[in-house]
Amino acid sequence: MLLFIYGLPGSGKGTQSELIKKEFNFIHLSTGDLIRDIINNKRKGWEELNGYVANGQLVPDDIINELFFMSLNEKGIDKNYIIDGYPRNLNQLNLIIAKLKNLTGIEVMHLYIRCDEEKIIKRITSRRICENCGAIFNIELDKDIQNCKFCGAKLYQRVDDQYSVIKKRIDEYKIKTLPVINRLKEENLLIEIDGDREVNNIFMDIILILKGKVK
Length: 215
Ligand SMILES: [Zn+2]
Prior knowledge:
Blueprint: E1 2-6, H1 13-23, E2 26-29, H2 31-40, H3 47-54, H4 61-75, E3 80-84, H5 90-100, E4 108-114, H6 117-125, E5 127-130, E6 136-138, E7 155-156, H7 163-176, H8 178-186, E8 190-194, H9 199-210
Parallel strand pairs: 1-3, 1-4, 2-3, 4-8
Antiparallel strand pairs: 5-6, 5-7
Helix pairs in contact: 1-9, 4-5, 6-7
The structure holds zinc ion (ZN).
């Protein structure tokens, strides 16, 4: 099975991917890792990848697509894969769909963890971390908190949790990847899950969806 998982930055799709991997027998496939592997191993036939990465350019969609399916073939097309962060745009989705037309017997699932943008922003920007023990707090839930409840050290906000950073990532996702989600929805290929809930409740729904479908 190919399980593509989607969600706005901060939707918790990374956490759910980890849980899915543990509960079922899934291999995590990341196009970023595939590109790094090729470059580090200096694989023949892929020299042009070096140029894009060395110059800080985006690797063209058709090359990523080729790389993705080559890796699937090498690892074994009959296994279960979870893919997070790909396809990132409509062109990548179209290339994947075109390739899948020639492959029979593969179950494909597109899972979208749907979250309210404002709730994500509120949750992320309220997060504070202890600079000593790493404990995580939420200043919305713990309004008077000044120092770590466990060790008394100062709390800080990670750069990634700042409003401008998370807002920018969400906006980018909306521009590039929301069209993918809308297209899948139009074609009745999208399974949506309410992501504005506790991690475990979301995961329970995912288990119900995957049970019986995963080899
Ligand atoms: Zn602490």
